[in-house]
């Protein structure tokens, strides 16, 4: 069974790289790493060289999702496994790895055609990351909407060894959402998958230090007319306090805080959770219809 370190980075497509770089730097409070070159920007929320890559495209949304493996041995195991299972992993060439500041990497497509990159390690920055005024701790999770949830969950669980933390169900019992963690990373979900009519990125989330960061962020966003579209509230599934807002292209971002963690040995069983608003938000707030609307997935 293959083992992961964490959700490593997200590559987003944005319509105006400079505008989005300023937004992710000044409003989301990530570090811009290096200058914008050839319409590509890198931002970081840790000592990693980057956790967010911005690329120019007229279709804003997701380009790919990068996971860091626990070790080079696990990276090699993952490559062999995906080859054996017929997912045709392709190694990333030296020039691109130099741009991404990663050592070894391969890409493959999941059953929906979404590009995933698995890498063994990323260059670490000497300069400490000192987020301010919103204390962002890490890239936390990404959520996709897919046309076939059952097959997608099966692939991530049975082939890729992601664990199911919880699922949500309609009144007739049908599953419509799965929260998955990249084993043995303890956090409740680094990857969420929702049943949808089409393939779309729903949101990406950054973890912040505490409730003060959510309050500070809310006022800063509202003062600059950035749409805050849901929250603050508390999700029942992970137990986290959340707040969702929109980036300049209308992509949905979430700040999250205080998510449940699972032990590697003897974790609790996944729960079947209902579809009610109270399960989505224990504080019963309403979400704005713009949530998750923009999020083209490059396939
Ligand atoms: C709206 C979905 C179905 C939901 O319940 C979301 C919950 C959580 C959580 O429990 O943390 C998320 O972070 C999320 O999917 O955004
Ligand atoms: Fe989320």
From TrEMBL:
Keyword tags: Aromatic hydrocarbons catabolism, Dioxygenase, Iron, Metal-binding, Oxidoreductase
Top-rank taxon, per record: Bacteria
InterPro entries: Fosfomycin_Res_Enzymes, Glyas_Bleomycin-R_OHBP_Dase, Glyas_Fos-R_dOase_dom, VOC_core, Xdiol_ring_cleave_dOase_1/2
Needed co-factor(s): Fe(2+)
Keyword Metal-binding among record annotations: yes
UniProt GO molecular function: dioxygenase activity; ferrous iron binding
UniProt domain VOC: residue ranges: 6-121, 138-258
Keyword presence, Metal-binding: yes
Family assignment from sequence similarity: Belongs to the extradiol ring-cleavage dioxygenase family.
Protein name in the entry: VOC domain-containing protein
Taxonomic source organism: Domibacillus epiphyticus
């Amino acid at each position: 069974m293959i083992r992961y370190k964490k959700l490593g980075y997200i590559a987003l497509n944005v319509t105006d790289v400079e505008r989005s770089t300023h937004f992710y730097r000044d409003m989301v409070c990530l570090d811009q790493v290096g200058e914008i070159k050839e319409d590509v920007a890198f931002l970081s929320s840790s000592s990693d060289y980057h956790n967010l890559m911005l690329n120019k495209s007229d279709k804003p949304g997701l380009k790919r999702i990068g996971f860091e493996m626990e070790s080079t041995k696990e990276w090699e195991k993952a490559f062999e496994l995906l080859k054996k299972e017929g997912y045709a992993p392709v190694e990333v060439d030296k020039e691109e790895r130099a741009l991404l500041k990663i050592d070894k990497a391969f890409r493959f497509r999941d059953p929906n055609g979404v590009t995933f990159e698995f890498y063994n390690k990323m260059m670490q920055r000497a300069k400490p990351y000192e987020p301010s005024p919103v204390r962002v701790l890490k890239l936390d999770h990404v959520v996709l909407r897919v046309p076939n949830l059952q097959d997608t969950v099966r692939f991530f669980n049975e082939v890729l060894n992601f664990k199911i933390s919880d699922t949500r169900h309609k009144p007739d019992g049908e599953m419509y959402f799965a929260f998955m963690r990249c084993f043995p990373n303890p956090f409740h979900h680094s990857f969420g998958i929702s049943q949808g009519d089409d393939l779309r990125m729903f949101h990406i989330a950054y973890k912040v230090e505490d409730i003060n960061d959510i309050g500070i962020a809310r006022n800063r966003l509202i003062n600059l007319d950035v749409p805050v579209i849901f929250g603050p509230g508390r999700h029942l599934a992970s137990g986290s306090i959340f707040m969702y807002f929109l980036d300049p292209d209308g992509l949905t971002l979430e700040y999250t805080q205080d998510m449940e963690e699972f032990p590697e040995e003897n974790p609790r069983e996944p729960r079947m959770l209902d579809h009610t608003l109270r399960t989505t938000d224990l504080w019963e707030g309403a979400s704005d219809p713009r949530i998750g609307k923009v999020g083209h997935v490059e396939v």
